[in-house]
Amino acid sequence: MSDENVSASQLRLFIERIETLEEEKKGIADDIKDVYAEAKATGFDIKTMKTLVRLRKMETQARQEAEALLETYKAAIGL
């Protein structure tokens, strides 16, 4: 088997794996949308929930810095 055939075979396998993962990612994204829709139907604010999810992903120090900067900016414009 030549190097070209091996490379083409490897490339095809990588592409197929990526395609499978992309399908799984879409399924998970749909599941997340369903959970947000369920939460909204229960009366929760989705925008706030998404903010909480984003904040929980952050490192503690980065979150504290972002919150401090937000407070500084709010104070600067009189909020």
Automatic annotation (TrEMBL):
<dbReference type="GO" id="GO:0003677">
    <property type="term" value="F:DNA binding"/>
</dbReference>
<dbReference type="InterPro" id="IPR046367">
    <property type="entry name" value="GapR-like_DNA-bd"/>
</dbReference>
<protein>
    <recommendedName>
        <fullName>UPF0335 protein CHU93_14105</fullName>
    </recommendedName>
</protein>
<feature type="coiled-coil region">
    <location>
        <begin position="18"/>
        <end position="72"/>
    </location>
</feature>
<dbReference type="Pfam" id="PF10073">
    <property type="entry name" value="GapR_DNA-bd"/>
</dbReference>
<dbReference type="InterPro" id="IPR018753">
    <property type="entry name" value="GapR-like"/>
</dbReference>
<feature type="domain" description="GapR-like DNA-binding">
    <location>
        <begin position="8"/>
        <end position="78"/>
    </location>
</feature>
<keyword id="KW-0175">Coiled coil</keyword>
<comment type="similarity">
    <text>Belongs to the UPF0335 family.</text>
</comment>
